[in-house]
Amino acid sequence: MRALIISNPKSGTSETMLGEVIGTIESLYEELIIKKTQEIGDALRFAKESGTFDHMIVIGGDGTLNEVVNGLMTLEREDRPTVGIIPAGTCNDFARALELPIQPTQAASVIKSNHEQHVDVIQVDEMYALNFVGVGLIADTSRQIDPDEKEALGSIGYFLATIRQFREADPFEIRLRRGDELLYEGDVSFLYVGNGSYLGTVPTKLETQSFSDGLLEVVHSSSIGFPMIRQLLAQQLGLDQKSTEWNHFQAPHVEVELNEPQIIDVDGEHFETDHLTIRIREQALMFLTP
Questions:
Q1: What domains sit in the chain, N to C, each tagged with a CATH number?
Q2: C-alpha neighbours within 13 Å on the C-beta side of residue 99
């Protein structure tokens, strides 16, 4: 077998860590190629050129993984290598969702087990994601969080950033459609459309969540201010709320119409628009899991 390692030194990947990972897995492969990212876009480019490899090992955080996924989805399905993750970022949300060890050599040992799992991929217009699409409070929080606070406090840092956003948060009007069917119309404080089971290191606690059921998890809420804080605390920041102010449903695809352009967060990538088409690409990638 042939493997490509994509390593992001800026995510905290040291030469020692890289050496330990290579030492753990090198006996599996006839050829092992290492490529290190230097700037944004490198992992995307490396993934686009990975069609001849059996495995791709990603050493980095959620941002590096997001680039890799977008690169792999440009390849034909049969040409996409199976992906192994060595978590090296701050949140590592998708690695947590796959129940991967955070310790590098332990995560590398998972690759040696060669246990594979199909995973759905979210398509957002022409972009791809593994974890979520966020609008409103979720997008504002991830965009405004202080990097030092994120590094030091993890999920607590996200919660503090969320509290700060309440001061400026305003409801916005959305329409959610599935084809010709109107699923919801009204004001919300946030919209979450996801496939992963973690958001800012915190479990989403959605009972129906699955990586390979061909369905998106859609959550939105009209709650704001103190009611939102109370509910977040009660559920430890989870999204699976029982209040009538929270709505949760599943759908294979959904169109989002906004009354005015909003900042959109797609696995940490931000842009502004007033319309989104979001769908699931069923079992589009294969990952190495415990």
A1: 2-114 (3.40.50.10330), 127-281 (2.60.200.40)
A2: 5
